[in-house]
């Protein structure tokens, strides 16, 4: 077990690879004094008739294998020569009794242990996060009293600074003096916060030899926690460990002396101070501050040494002795700090202890005090009388932020370091008071490292502070590398997992084997994933420069797939510039990681804020849907954040609409280059933002599009009458929208009036309803009256009519020229249930027509049956027309949801049906072999019983109805028939009642009432698709629509005219007009946010919170 006489390097790296196992602690060695005979080299003294070695331990505490006496004849005892190192036998978990069952970690280490090993132990094995600040508390080792107010401020301030900055607190670790005060502060914090707050890390570096009951800490394997209890009464000259510390380093040099840990503690503090702080290796190291309470000459030496190492010190005035001496002279010039003054102060604060001091020592201490005062930039005194409204935490942080005024360049570097420290500590108050002052001028570039740290470290308050003090997001994200680095530092989230999967998938597709840690996120990966989340209708947000030819190929393939376009359209697509919007990039980065605070700060900076909010809503709902865990906390947070941004979009749009309705409507249909050339209206539709679509301003726009050039004030009966007798449009019977609004731009002559009437989506809808009823009437007539061996003229007209419907479906599939390629269009097309019904009805009609044209009678009749079934589907398709109705539209949604629910109920019902059917069939019929009769007896007849139709073979009360047609297949008699009746009674009497009751309750409560309560919202949302469909339809109804299709074919294919854009749904604005509109939108957003903050500040919850914080 003992690594006797092994070299230090070998001992310390013995088990370095097996981190956190019990054997790992073998590298943290202890020291043991070698026992030898008295007369050789050890001088013994007698205490209570027991020999004590020079090391302080009795003989029975020494090693069992004594070194030969002749090796050390005539030598004085020396720690380095007469002790040896061995693997530690005291490490693991330590459990303290009492309230809360506090537990901690501890290890016994040699005083010569390298600090690299100790730091690795704490970070790798104990799983401590690297600190952002190291607070070394030193002072009186004996118990002392301080003023209650100072005690309270010290405890509260120490915990606050440790909690907010993620600091480590380093003390002596024993339950005495200043260490006891630190432990009590941690205890009070633990009792008040419980498990809701993070743990405060308090590391005690104590000498092993003076620990009371050290035998309880012996734990060679470290697999079980040791029990340690506080025993102040029986400790004597030894010291107990403080039970409120969380970790202990017990330093052993082979002796039982105090102070053996000082050297190791100083080296450990220096090593920690050399570790880097931050995310990108900015050169800023972990700061260290020394806090001094009370103390004697040893404390003065500690202060002097740490300040020589450029470590700032905070002295608490009023804590006693040396701390008060230094506090009294800290503000004096060095010339006034004389020996007499120091003698007076020491006599005053040390009392009787001063009489033990020699003149030489006092002179030495005076010189050190003078040197300490010369380093005034490293000395901070907390005056309790002057700082009544502040705690010690402010003094500690201010001590680290003092800037020497001698060198301007050094002062600037120090300021930048202090800003990094303030960000790491997340102390906005310190940054506002000490860093962002009127005397210091900051440029945007100076703040970029702090901005990166604040973003990656999830410090939204600091991000807001930096933006307020001059950070330009455009300059910060000017390069693609910075944005890629932000995505590379995304916290663990669902989007990061998807992004990593996409990066690895790309490497696999290129034939490369992905290596762990070798994947690098590029903007092309982000663009692909974001486009997937937003929808294929958008263009990529990021097009890297290296992908210019690739993107050109995509554009060419998309344009050629559309077919009906002019080659000049290619030039238009190719010259489209991608917008690099830094605010959008920052907002998108915050949204995909589901960070509400950072996203809100970024959104407040966005100009195109409505589109940004709706895009965030779409992305978050898509992420929540793809997460696959609807009940997971992450998915719930995403849905909540999506709802929040839908409300934000509604709030800003309401503000805009209340000021200027026409401008607000222009915001809805404006093409947004920042969001993939989509529109707010389209984003809201794809995000299923029903509340936004149901807004009165959005509905007003849809209503205007629905009426077209006709006035929205026209009654429906007037429009119908003009459709039948169109000369009425030349009178004042029907009003047009252009007649009152823009008469100078739009003269209403005869042709324009006629064109306005028949191109109105409302009129098209009425004509198509009449046409569809005519089609169904003709279809019914052919099926019931005129279905001959050879098609009649009515049937031929039906074929032509159906051909027009097929052509219209093809036109609808290809008509969106701004949309994606063929595959994406097909996927979007079949995602609509009504389109599926259209395709199904057309396929069935073609199948029925093929069978109907056959000469065989059987096949001919099959064709008619197929056409009859097809007629049912065409009738069901009629429901889609009535979605525009405010009354019938929601009812159709209710019916669709009921059908979905009914499927699951039928599945549950089938279990009872099959269970009873198989039992009944097995009881009544013996070895039935006919498959159709098996299905009839096991499934069909039990299904009829649910509705009260009982088969005749079991309905007789005398049980005399038996099957006798086949002697081999006969029933089992009256006894077995009665068993079937009992089985039927027990199975289906309660089943039918239960089934009907459950269906009624579910449909009434969960389906009908849910939709009925949102009738208005659902109707307003679903009418958009119908309005868009009929706006793009040709004016002529089927079958005359074939003429329109022929004209479109000639224009698009033969003449190669460019396609017509959908101006009511997409509008390209001039650059000047767009800038004015976005500036106005940003102004409205500021008004909305101001009113929202005002309402929030006046709420009772906010007032209670403010009162609690004060």
UniProtKB/TrEMBL annotation:
The keyword Membrane applies. Residues 105-331 form the TRPM SLOG domain. It is a multi-pass membrane protein. One of its GO terms (cellular component) is plasma membrane. Its main location: membrane. Keywords: Ion channel, Ion transport, Membrane, Transmembrane, Transmembrane helix, Transport. The chain crosses the membrane at residues 765-785, 835-855, 861-882, 902-919. Residues 766-1016 form the Ion transport domain. It is found in: Membrane. Residues 434-695 form the TRPM-like domain. One of its GO terms (molecular function) is ligand-gated calcium channel activity. It holds the Pfam family TRPM2. InterPro entries: Ion_trans_dom, TRPM, TRPM-like, TRPM_SLOG. This is Transient receptor potential cation channel, subfamily M, member 2. It comes from Cyprinus carpio. The lineage of its organism: Eukaryota, Metazoa, Chordata, Craniata, Vertebrata.
């Amino acid at each position: 077990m003992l690594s006797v006489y092994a070299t230090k390097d070998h001992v310390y790296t013995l088990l370095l690879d097996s981190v956190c196992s019990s054997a790992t602690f073998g590298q943290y060695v202890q020291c043991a004094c070698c026992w030898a005979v008295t007369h050789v080299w050890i001088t013994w003294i007698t205490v209570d008739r027991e020999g004590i070695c020079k090391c302080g331990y009795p003989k029975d505490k020494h090693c069992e294998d004594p070194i030969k006496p002749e090796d050390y004849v005539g030598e004085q005892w020396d720690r380095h020569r007469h002790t040896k190192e061995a693997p530690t036998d005291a490490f693991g978990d330590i459990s303290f009794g009492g309230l809360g069952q506090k537990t901690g970690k501890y290890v016994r280490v040699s005083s010569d242990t390298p600090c690299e090993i100790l730091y690795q132990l704490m970070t790798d094995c104990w799983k401590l996060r690297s600190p952002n600040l190291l607070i070394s508390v030193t002072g009186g080792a004996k118990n002392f009293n301080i003023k209650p107010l100072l005690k309270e401020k010290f405890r509260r301030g120490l915990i606050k600074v440790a909690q907010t900055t993620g600091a480590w607190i380093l003390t002596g670790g024993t339950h005495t003096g200043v260490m006891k005060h630190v432990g009590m502060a941690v205890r009070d914090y633990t009792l008040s916060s419980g498990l809701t707050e993070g743990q405060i890390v308090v590391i005690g570096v104590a000498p092993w030899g003076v620990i009371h009951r050290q035998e309880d800490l012996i734990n060679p394997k470290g697999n079980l926690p040791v029990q340690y209890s506080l025993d102040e009464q029986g400790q004597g000259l030894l010291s107990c460990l403080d039970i409120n510390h969380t970790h202990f380093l017990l330093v052993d040099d082979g002796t039982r002396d105090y102070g053996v840990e000082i050297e190791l503690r100083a080296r450990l503090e220096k090593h920690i101070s050399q570790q880097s702080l931050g995310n990108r290796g900015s050169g800023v190291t972990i700061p260290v501050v020394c806090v001094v309470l009370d103390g004697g000459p040893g404390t003065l030496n500690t202060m002097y040494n740490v300040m020589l190492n450029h470590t700032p010190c905070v002295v608490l005035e009023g804590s006693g002795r040396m701390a008060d001496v230094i506090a009294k002279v800290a503000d004096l010039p060095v010339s006034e700090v004389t020996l007499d003054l120091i003698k007076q102060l020491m006599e005053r604060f040390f009392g009787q202890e001063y009489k033990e001091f020699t003149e030489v020592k006092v002179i030495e201490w005076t010189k050190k005090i003078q040197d300490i005062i010369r380093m005034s930039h490293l000395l901070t005194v907390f005056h309790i009388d002057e700082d009544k409204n502040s705690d010690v935490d402010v003094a500690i942080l201010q001590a680290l932020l003092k800037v020497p005024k001698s060198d301007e360049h050094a002062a600037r570097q120090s300021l930048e370091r202090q800003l990094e420290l303030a960000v790491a500590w997340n102390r906005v108050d310190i940054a506002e008071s000490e860093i962002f002052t009127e005397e210091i001028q900051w440029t945007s570039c100076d703040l970029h490292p702090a901005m990166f740290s604040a973003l990656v470290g999830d410090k939204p308050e600091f991000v807001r502070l930096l933006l307020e003090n001059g950070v330009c997001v455009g300059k910060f994200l000017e390069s693609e590398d910075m944005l890629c680095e932000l995505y590379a530092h995304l916290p663990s989230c669902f989007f990061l997992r998807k992004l990593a999967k996409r990066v690895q998938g790309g490497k696999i597709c290129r034939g490369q084997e992905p290596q762990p840690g070798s994947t690098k996120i590029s903007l092309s990966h982000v663009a692909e994933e974001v486009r997937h989340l937003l929808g294929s209708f958008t263009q990529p947000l990021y097009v890297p420069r290296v992908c210019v030819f690739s993107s050109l190929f995509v554009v060419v393939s998309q344009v050629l797939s559309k077919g009906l376009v002019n080659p000049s359209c290619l030039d238009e697509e190719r010259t489209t510039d991608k917008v690099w919007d830094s605010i959008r990039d920052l907002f998108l980065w915050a949204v995909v990681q589901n960070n509400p605070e950072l996203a809100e700060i970024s959104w407040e900076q966005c100009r195109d804020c409505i589109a940004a909010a709706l895009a965030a809503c779409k992305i978050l709902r898509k992420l929540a849907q793809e997460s696959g865990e609807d009940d997971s906390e992450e998915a719930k947070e995403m849905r909540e954040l999506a709802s929040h941004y839908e409300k934000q979009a509604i709030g800003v749009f309401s503000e805009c609409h209340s000021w200027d309705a026409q401008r607000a409507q222009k915001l809805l249909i404006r093409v947004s280059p920042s969001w993939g050339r989509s529109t707010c209206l389209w984003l809201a539709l794809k995000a299923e933002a029903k509340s936004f679509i149901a807004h009165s301003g959005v509905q007003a726009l849809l209503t205007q599009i629905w009426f077209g050039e006709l006035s929205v004030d026209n009654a429906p009966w007037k429009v119908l009458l003009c459709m039948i007798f169109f000369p009425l449009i030349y009178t004042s019977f029907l009003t047009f929208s252009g007649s009152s609004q823009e008469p100078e731009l739009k003269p209403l002559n005869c042709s324009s009036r006629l064109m306005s009437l028949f191109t109105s989506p409302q009129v098209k809808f009425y004509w198509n309803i009449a046409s569809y009823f005519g089609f169904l009437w003709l279809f019914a007539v052919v099926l019931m009256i005129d279905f001959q061996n050879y098609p009649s003229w009515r049937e031929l007209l039906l074929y032509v009519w159906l051909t027009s419907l097929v052509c219209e479906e093809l036109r609808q599939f290809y008509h969106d020229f701004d949309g994606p390629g063929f595959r994406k269009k097909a996927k979007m097309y079949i995602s609509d249930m009504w389109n599926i019904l259209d395709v199904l009805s057309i396929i069935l009609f073609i199948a029925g027509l093929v069978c109907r044209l056959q000469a065989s009678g059987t096949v001919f009749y099959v064709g008619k049956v197929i056409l009859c079934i097809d007629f049912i589907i065409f009738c069901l398709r009629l429901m889609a027309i009535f979605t525009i109705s405010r009354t019938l539209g929601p009812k159709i949604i209710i019916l669709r949801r009921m059908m979905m629910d009914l499927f699951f109920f039928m599945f549950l019902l089938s279990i009872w049906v099959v269970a009873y059917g198989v039992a009944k069939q097995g009881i009544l019929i013996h070895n039935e072999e006919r498959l159709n009769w098996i299905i009839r007896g096991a499934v069909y007849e039990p299904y009829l019983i649910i509705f009260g139709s009982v088969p005749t073979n079991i309905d007789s009360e005398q049980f005399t109805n038996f099957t006798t047609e086949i002697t081999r297949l006969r029933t089992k008699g009256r006894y077995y028939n009665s068993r079937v009746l009992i089985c039927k009674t027990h199975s289906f009497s309660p089943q039918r009642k239960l089934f009907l009751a459950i269906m009624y309750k579910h449909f009434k409560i969960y389906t009908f009432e849910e939709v009925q309560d949102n009738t208005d919202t659902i109707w307003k949302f679903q009418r958009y698709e119908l309005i868009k469909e009929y706006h793009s339809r040709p004016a002529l109804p089927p079958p005359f629509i074939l003429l329109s299709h022929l004209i479109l074919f000639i224009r698009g294919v033969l003449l190669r005219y460019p396609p017509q854009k959908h101006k009511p749904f997409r509008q390209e604005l001039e650059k000047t007009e767009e800038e004015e509109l976005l500036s106005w939108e940003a102004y409205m957003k500021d008004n909305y946010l101001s009113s929202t903050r005002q309402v929030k500040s006046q709420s009772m919850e906010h007032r209670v919170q403010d009162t609690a914080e004060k």
